[in-house]
Amino acid sequence: MRLFARVNAVLARVAALLIGLMMLTVVYDVVARLAFRAPTLWVIDINEYLLVYVTFIPAAWILQRDNHVKVEIAVSRLQPRAQRVMSLVTDLVGLFYCAILSWQGWLVAWAALEKGYRFSTALSFPQFPVFVIIPLGAAWLGLAFLVRLLSAARKNGGRPVPVRELGAPET
């Protein structure tokens, strides 16, 4: 579990670097367009592709830190035991969803690779490198749900274990 937490921390940093890269390319495009009247053809395409990566790469890290979007108004009114049950159910549903998304995402990515599909944009970039992060990211997120379930089974009477108890560096 510690290795998982450390890999997640690295992936979160990678996602942050990609977001920084996206920001720099957009600034470059704005300056090129306004100052030199030479807009780029590639910035929008690249940022659309990177957006898929920055969605899936840090997803497990966000779940591990329990920083995902949730409706706390309903859950906070439940008794502690009911909250643990709700956490267990949502983790199981999340794991199931990630398994389906990984499987179906891989089928789509593989078809794009086999058939040589390309995006119909200015760059005509191959679809596989963009699509493959979906099943990989979903599988990694599914592993995060599994880690939460295993942690809940071992410790804290069924509640997920906070990231600092897993030995991951705080970022």
Brief summary of the model shown:
With 171 residues, the chain is mostly helical. The protein has helices spanning 2-36, 43-56, 59-64, 72-75, 80-115, 128-131, 133-154. α1 packs antiparallel against α2 and α5 packs antiparallel against α7.
Largest sheet, strands/sense/barrel: none
Number of structural units classed as domains: 1
Mean of the pLDDT scores?
91
Distance between the termini: 17 Å
Helix content estimate: over 70%
The total of beta strands comes to: 0
Uncertain segments: none
Any idea what the radius of gyration is? 20 Å
| Total DSSP helices | 7
Derived structural class: mainly alpha
What is the helix/strand order?
Answer: HHHHHHH
Principal-axes shape call: elongated
Residue fraction in strands: under 5%
What would you say this structure looks like, in words?
With 171 residues, the protein is mainly α. It has one domain. The chain has helices at residues 2-36, 43-56, 59-64, 72-75, 80-115, 128-131, 133-154. Helix 5 (80-115) packs antiparallel against helix 7 (133-154). The chain is elongated. The two termini are 17 Å apart. The model has no long low-confidence stretch (mean pLDDT 91).
